[in-house]
C-alpha cells in the first residue's frame, strides 16, 4: 500500500487519504505549501479533482451504515483514542501548524490541545444521545422522536486553525454516526493529513474518515455539487459561504456556514481600563489577528479615550514580532495575498483620514526580508462607514473610534453586515443585561478577552453565517430527527 507521502526533489509530496488508504490523485498536479515566515516550500499536496471527490464520497457512503450501527460509546472511544494520539504527537503537530500557518509555537501547542479537546468533548456525549417520548392523541399509541445520522458530511475548513477546525467538525460528525470527507484550505493542508495518518493507526473502519486536498473552486466545489453528501459544514469566508449556499440549493443540502466576523469592542467610561487594554491586545493580535472572533474595531468612550489609547498603543508597541518557532507574540501573515490585502486596507484608511498611532507598514528588513510581515498597527478613525470599520481585516491592525456615550457605542457596533462576536467593557450590570437583546452578535464577551468554550455555542448571525458549532447545539446539528408513531392496539 502506498505511504502517506514520498520525497520528491527534496520535499514531501502527500497523497489523499481515502477509504483507509493513501491514494494518488487522478489529476497529476500538486499544490506547493509555503511556510509564511520564510517562504520556503515545505511540502506539496494533490490538487484534487472531480474523480477524487467522487472516490472519497463513495467510500464514505459505503462505510456509513455500519459506522452508525456501532454503539455510540464505541465511536466515542475511537475519538478518545485519536485525541490521545494527537496529544502524544502534540509537539510534532504544533510544529507542522507553525510551518504551514505561521502562528507562534505556544499558540500552535494550544491549537493542538484544542483539537484533542474537540474530539474528547464529542466522545463524552456518546451516552447522552437522547430523544423524546411523547404521548399520542390516539389510544394505544406512542410517539417517539429519535436522533439519527444524516449520512455523509463534507467538512471544508479555513487556514487559520487547520488542526482545530478539522477536529471541531470531525468529532461531533463521527460521534453522531456520520462519515466524513474533509478538505482543508489549500494553503494549510498538512495538519489534516497528518491527523488522518494518526487515525489510520486506530480501528476506524475504512471510509469513515477521508481527507482530500485541493482548491475550493476545484475539489471543494466538486464535493459540494456531488449528490452523496447530505450536510456541508464550512468554516471560511462569506464569499465561499454564499457560493456554497447557491451550489447546494438544487439538492437542498443542509448547510452549516461559520463565516467571517468584524467584532466591535466597546469600552464604556466605567470600564477597568487596564483589563480592557489587556483584552483588546490579546483579542486583536493573537494569531496575527487572524481569528474570526478577533477585536476588529473599537468604540471607546471619550472620557477614557486618552488614557485608553495611551496604554493600548504602548502595549501594542511592546509586542514582539518575529520567528514563530520562538517565543514571540506575533508571527507573519499567512500569505502574500493576505498581506497585500491588509496593506491596501491600511493605506486606504490613511488616505481617508485615519491617523496611525503605531505601525502602519510592512516589515521587510533584516529577519523580515523573507516572509509576510506586518507591524502591529493602531489607528484612530472618525467615520464608521470607512472600509476599515466595515470589512474584515483579519490581520494585526485595529481602528479606534471615540464615542460620546455607551448607546452610541452600541449603535455603531450594530452598524455592520457581520454578526459573529462582540466585546463590551463596563461595570454597569444594567448595561450588561441590555446587551443580550440589543447587540446583534452571536457571541458576546463581557469584561474579558475572546476565546470560546468547547461546551458553549459558537454561532454567527447575519453575514457571519448560518449554523453554529460546539456544545449540545453544535452536536445536535449533526443529527436528523425521525418521528415514529407506534400503534400497539
Ligand atoms: P475560504 O472561504 O477561502 O476557504 C475556506 C474553505 O472553503 C477552504 O477549504 C476552501 O478551499 C473552501 N472553499 C472556498 N470556496 C469554495 C467553494 N466555492 N466551494 C467549495 N469549497 C470552497 O476562507 P479562508 O480564507 O480559508 O478563511 C478565512 C475566513 O474564515 C475569514 O473570513 C474568517 O473570519 C473565517 N473563519 C470563520 C470562523 C468561524 O467559526 N465563524 C473560524 C475561522 C475562520
UniProtKB/TrEMBL annotation:
Keywords carried by this UniProt record: Oxidoreductase
Regions annotated as coiled coil: none
Enzyme class: oxidoreductase
Molecular-function GO terms, alphabetical: oxidoreductase activity
One Pfam family named in its UniProt record: Aldedh
Aldehyde dehydrogenase domain sequence ranges: 22-484
PROSITE patterns: ALDEHYDE_DEHYDR_CYS, ALDEHYDE_DEHYDR_GLU
Positions annotated as active site in the UniProt record: 258
Entry's EC annotation: 1.2.1.-
Protein family: Belongs to the aldehyde dehydrogenase family.
Protein name: Aldehyde dehydrogenase
Organism (species): Mesorhizobium shangrilense
Lineage of producing organism: Bacteria, Pseudomonadati, Pseudomonadota, Alphaproteobacteria, Hyphomicrobiales
Originating gene: aldA
Amino acid at each position: 500500500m502506498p505511504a502517506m507521502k514520498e520525497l520528491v526533489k527534496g520535499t514531501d509530496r502527500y497523497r489523499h487519504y481515502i477509504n483507509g488508504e493513501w491514494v494518488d490523485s487522478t489529476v497529476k498536479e500538486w499544490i506547493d505549501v509555503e511556510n509564511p515566515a520564510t517562504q520556503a516550500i515545505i511540502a506539496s499536496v494533490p490538487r484534487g479533482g472531480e474523480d477524487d471527490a467522487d472516490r472519497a464520497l463513495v467510500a464514505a457512503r459505503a462505510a456509513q451504515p455500519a459506522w452508525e450501527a456501532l454503539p455510540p460509546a464505541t465511536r466515542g472511544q475511537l475519538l478518545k483514542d485519536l485525541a490521545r494520539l494527537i496529544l502524544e504527537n502534540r509537539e510534532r503537530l504544533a510544529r507542522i501548524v507553525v510551518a504551514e500557518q505561521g502562528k507562534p509555537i505556544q499558540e500552535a501547542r494550544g491549537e493542538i490541545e484544542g483539537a484533542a479537546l474537540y474530539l474528547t468533548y464529542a466522545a463524552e456525549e456518546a451516552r447522552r444521545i437522547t430523544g423524546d417520548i411523547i404521548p399520542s392523541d390516539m389510544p394505544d399509541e406512542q410517539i417517539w422522536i429519535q436522533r439519527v445520522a444524516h449520512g455523509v458530511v463534507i467538512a471544508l475548513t479555513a487556514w487559520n486553525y487547520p488542526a482545530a477546525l478539522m477536529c471541531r467538525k470531525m468529532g461531533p460528525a463521527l460521534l453522531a454516526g456520520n462519515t466524513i470527507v474533509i478538505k482543508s484550505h489549500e494553503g494549510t493542508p498538512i495538519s489534516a493529513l497528518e491527523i488522518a495518518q494518526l487515525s489510520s493507526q486506530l480501528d476506524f473502519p475504512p471510509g469513515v474518515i477521508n481527507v482530500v486536498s485541493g482548491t475550493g473552486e476545484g475539489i471543494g466545489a466538486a464535493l459540494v455539487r456531488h449528490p452523496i453528501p447530505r450536510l456541508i459544514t464550512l468554516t471560511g469566508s462569506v464569499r465561499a459561504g454564499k457560493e456554497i449556499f447557491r451550489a447546494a440549493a438544487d439538492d437542498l443540502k443542509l448547510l452549516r456556514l461559520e463565516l467571517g466576523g468584524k467584532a466591535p469592542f466597546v469600552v464604556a467610561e466605567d470600564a477597568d481600563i487596564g483589563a480592557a487594554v489587556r483584552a483588546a491586545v490579546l483579542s486583536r493580535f493573537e494569531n496575527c489577528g487572524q481569528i474570526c472572533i478577533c477585536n476588529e474595531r473599537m468604540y471607546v468612550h471619550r472620557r477614557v479615550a486618552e488614557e485608553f489609547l495611551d496604554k493600548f498603543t504602548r502595549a501594542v508597541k511592546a509586542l514582539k514580532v518575529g520567528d514563530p518557532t520562538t517565543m514571540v507574540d506575533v508571527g507573519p501573515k499567512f500569505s502574500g495575498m493576505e498581506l497585500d490585502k491588509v496593506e491596501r486596507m491600511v493605506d486606504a484608511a490613511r488616505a481617508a483620514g485615519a491617523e496611525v498611532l503605531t505601525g502602519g507598514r510592512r516589515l521587510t528588513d533584516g529577519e523580515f526580508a523573507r516572509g509576510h510581515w506586518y507591524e502591529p498597527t493602531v489607528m484612530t478613525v472618525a467615520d464608521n462607514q470607512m472600509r476599515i470599520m466595515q470589512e474584515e481585516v483579519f490581520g494585526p491592525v485595529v481602528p479606534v473610534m471615540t464615542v460620546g456615550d455607551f448607546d452610541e457605542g452600541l449603535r455603531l457596533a450594530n452598524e455592520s453586515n457581520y454578526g459573529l462576536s462582540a466585546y463590551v467593557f463596563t461595570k454597569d450590570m444594567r448595561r450588561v443585561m441590555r446587551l443580550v437583546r440589543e447587540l446583534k452578535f452571536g457571541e458576546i464577551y463581557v469584561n474579558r478577552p475572546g476565546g470560546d468554550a468547547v461546551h458553549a455555542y459558537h454561532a454567527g448571525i447575519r453575514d457571519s453565517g448560518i449554523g453554529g458549532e460546539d456544545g449540545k447545539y453544535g452536536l445536535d446539528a449533526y443529527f436528523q430527527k425521525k418521528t415514529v408513531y407506534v400503534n400497539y392496539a
